[in-house]
Design a protein that fits this description.
Distance between the termini: 48 Å
Structural class: alpha/beta
Order of helices and strands: HEHEEHEEHHHEHEHEHEEH
Protein name: ATP-binding cassette subfamily B protein
Shape: globular
Family: Belongs to the ABC transporter superfamily. Lipid exporter (TC 3.A.1.106) family.
Largest sheet: 6 strands, mixed
Number of strands: 10
Strand order of the largest sheet: 4-7-8-1-9-10
Organism: Microcella alkaliphila
Bound molecules: adenosine-5'-diphosphate
Subcellular location: Cell membrane
């Protein structure tokens, strides 16, 4: 069913719109890449192509040398996690929300990932612990908490590659630090590609890819890019 829905969405793409042109960059295993650029530059589209939400009309995306179109989507998505911006909270318990991609995880593992993304306080806000209802009829989570919950979910699923869209997260100082810690927690032993909104994410990255009007206008470390301006 999901495959069919995706196929329909892909089929509906207007064919005369070129969103990305000549975009090329390499992401070393275990590194952290930040995608930056103005709204509409094509950053989300790059992530969508990497996890095959769309396929490119031209060009190839390779993972460990293999054209990702040679992998079926289930196989691809077991290796690539995607944390979207404004990640939704499902109506249900905290545990339900964490176990989406990883039904077998234990309570201990759930509590551990919540700790690593600084969400232990949510457990303390209620007597029910992991059985606490969250979402519309339960404990309300802030925007920052919702995104950290999505990161906790990705931590449990532990994909080797993680795509993270923080493009709309405007966080205050405290939440900024919490998010930074959460990203550090997922970055460990993992390849991370982040649509970066916050300077700290950009500075902490091994590589920054600057997009504008669907094209790469700069690639390098923060130091290199600042020097070249
Ligand atoms: P960013 O993430 O950098 O804000 P997007 O990747 O969302 O940019 O969008 C890049 C461009 O592609 C924009 O001009 C946007 O209007 C266009 N676009 C995004 N999604 C679609 C779509 N499904 N069909 C056609 N054009 C799209
Ligand atoms: P808007 O740009 O108005 O926020 P959407 O919410 O429809 O529009 O989607 C935003 C962008 O996120 C789209 O351009 C699309 O390319 C991308 N996108 C949607 N779903 C996925 C997905 N599952 N994986 C990666 N990118 C996605």
């Amino acid at each position: 069913e999901a495959e069919k829905a995706i196929a329909e969405v892909v089929g509906e793409q207007p064919r005369d719109t070129t969103v990305l042109r000549g975009v090329s960059f390499a992401v070393p295993q275990g590194s952290r890449t930040a995608l930056v650029g103005p709204s509409g530059a094509g950053k989300s589209t790059v992530l969508a192509l990497i996890e095959r939400f769309y396929d490119p009309t031209e060009g190839v995306i390779r993972m460990a040398g293999v054209d990702i179109r040679a992998l079926d989507r289930t196989e691809l998505r077991s290796r690539i996690g995607y944390v979207e911006q404004d990640a939704p909270v499902l109506a249900g318990t905290l545990r339900d929300n964490l176990l989406l991609g990883t039904p077998g995880a234990s309570d201990e593992q759930c509590i551990e990932v919540l700790r690593r993304v600084n969400l232990s306080a949510v457990l303390d806000r209620t007597e029910a612990g992991l059985d606490a209802q969250v979402g519309e009829d339960g404990v309300m989570l802030s925007g920052g908490e919702r995104q950290r919950l999505a990161i906790a979910r990705a931590l449990l699923a532990a994909p080797p590659i993680l795509l993270l869209d923080e493009s709309t997260s405007s966080l205050d100082g405290v939440n900024e630090q919490l998010m930074r810690d959460a990203i550090d927690a997922v970055a460990h032993n993992r390849t991370l590609i982040v649509i970066a909104h916050r300077l700290s994410t950009v500075i902490d990255s091994d590589q920054i890819v600057v997009l504008e009007h669907g094209q790469v206008i700069g690639t390098g470390t923060h130091t290199e890019l600042v020097r070249d301006v």
